[in-house]
Amino acid sequence: MAQQIVHYFVLDTLSDWEAVFAISFLNKETYQIFQAQPGRYRVKIVGESRAPITTAAGLTIIPEMTVDELEPTESAMLILPGADIWLEEARAPVLAKASAFLAAGLPVAAICGAVPGLASVGLLNYKKHTGNSLAELQQVAKYKGEELYQDQPAYTDGDLITAAAIAPLEFAYHILKKLEAYKPEVLEAWYKVYKIGDAASKAEFFAAARQAGM
């Protein structure tokens, strides 16, 4: 199978921790050995331009491509991390791209501040979703999705994944599950390792990986 690209959008004030589990366990070679098809995915960094961005932790990330160059049909998923500036008008191009992904039946995963960003263009008015809080989303003018809000750390409805800032592990779980990056029993054991972290959970993970032939 040809390698598929997962696109990770970056912008100034990006919350470093929110997508780190997801992109690490998709992209890092030593973690890929546990995947159902090692090397199936590669993460590619997308920016509004190719200019460096500065994260919330003060780190510099240099995008590999721009939003204008991003074609949904050439992507396996678009990941949108939290940041302080999602509701600024300058985010219009990436939010339009997220709309195009969903219209084409391709997954979008958004966490924290990116969720109100999606709400600002009406994308949460017809899909079940979660976020930092319902109250936060109700501050967004175009948001009419109150009845669809799920009080969960992370939630998947079809091709839309949403999560709260406090749930980077759950966000990763939903992303890895949607992409079928790991066999189900391996993914469940992986989640327990990082959620619980005891010796029994680690033993269960390695046993599941062995049984899956990894």
UniProtKB/TrEMBL annotation:
Pfam family, one: DJ-1_PfpI
Origin superkingdom: Bacteria
SUPFAM superfamilies assigned: Class I glutamine amidotransferase-like
UniProt key word Ribosomal protein: no
Domain named DJ-1/PfpI: residues: 8-177
Segments passing through the bilayer: none
Keyword Nucleotide-binding: no
Any one Gene Ontology molecular-function term assigned to this protein's record: transferase activity
Protein name: Glutamine amidotransferase
Organism the protein comes from: Ktedonosporobacter rubrisoli
